[in-house]
Amino acid sequence: MRLVISREALIKPLQLVAGVVERRQTLPVLSNILLVAEGNQLSLTGTDLEVELVGRVQLDEPAEAGSVTVPARKLMDICKSLADDARIELELSGQKMMIKSGRSRFSLSTLPAHEFPNVEDSPETFELQLPQSALRRLIEQTGFSMAQQDVRYYLNGMLLEVKDGELRSVATDGHRLATSVSPVQTDVTSQQQIIVPRKGILELARLLQGGDEHVKLVIGANHIRANVGDFTFTSKLVDGKFPDYQRVIPRNGDKELLGDRQELRQVFSRIAILSNEKYRGVRLTLNDGYLQVMANNPEQEEAEETVAVDYQGGHLEIGFNVNYLLDVLSILNSDVVRFTLLDSNSSALIQGYDEPEALYVVMPMRM
């Protein structure tokens, strides 16, 4: 195996593929990426057995065919350290991968290509298409609410639901919920739900560009696959039952607050400085025409600020984790944000005034 490639052509696919590889692995080969040279193409594959990413690069001149696995981090660090306009020669010599560029010489240990695992395929059940920008927006609008390392493993990912020509994304960590929806091209007639693991969602988001170019998602019994440009992304699905998110969305709120999103975000950020570092609670006191935000901490320090809002619903006091409110206000685009509330023990429904497709639910805190 031998090939010559420019650093510029290699660095982006190498970074994306190496991003899938876990630093600490039980199997040594999983710390490596698989390189396959054939004709005028080099393919790079990284996997952690849950997520697999294959990137393809066109070569200026035909390669000497071959395949091998090399340490992902070391190869990436070597390429990063070279000059931007460097030409890189990769050549397999016995059990070593020789890397030459200018006056630099590196020799990396390798493992055989046949030891590299494949993410198993499962029969295709359905497929759908939508613009890359739309899928990326769905992930951005809801991904921050995914749980991390929750014992309820089905929360450590994102629900994708196809129904009535729409794709809905839903994420929750048990304390808050985010959902958004986008039109989608599909032949699916009945409702379909899958749970994509957290890492799969984050890696897919890294791949997606912002344009109108469509991405096709192929869903199997236990995997999802997407072709994005020169990359093929595959992720196993979470085998579990996602909570009924419709029951979580409050429908009976009778108090509505409208406020300037940026102003509220700045107020919450300031007050959060003196909130309890562990619980992050802030108290909201609502009266006609204004909102008072308060926080304190175990050192007996306090913060308080009053802001004018559009609200006529009578006196209400309610507590929230300020980080959850800031996450929502940071992701919305609307200038005006709407809070729909019922009482101090009920969840708040938050929406951008002109973003009806996205809904956010935040549970209250006892203060």
TrEMBL record:
The keyword DNA-binding applies. SUPFAM superfamilies: DNA clamp. Pfam families: DNA_pol3_beta, DNA_pol3_beta_2, DNA_pol3_beta_3. Residues 129-244 form the DNA polymerase III beta sliding clamp central domain. Keywords: Cytoplasm, DNA replication, DNA-binding, DNA-directed DNA polymerase, Nucleotidyltransferase, Transferase. It is found in: Cytoplasm. Residues 247-366 form the DNA polymerase III beta sliding clamp C-terminal domain. It comes from the Bacteria. Gene3D superfamilies: 3.70.10.10, DNA Polymerase III, subunit A, domain 2. Residues 1-119 form the DNA polymerase III beta sliding clamp N-terminal domain. Forms a ring-shaped head-to-tail homodimer around DNA. This is Beta sliding clamp. It comes from Marinobacterium sediminicola.
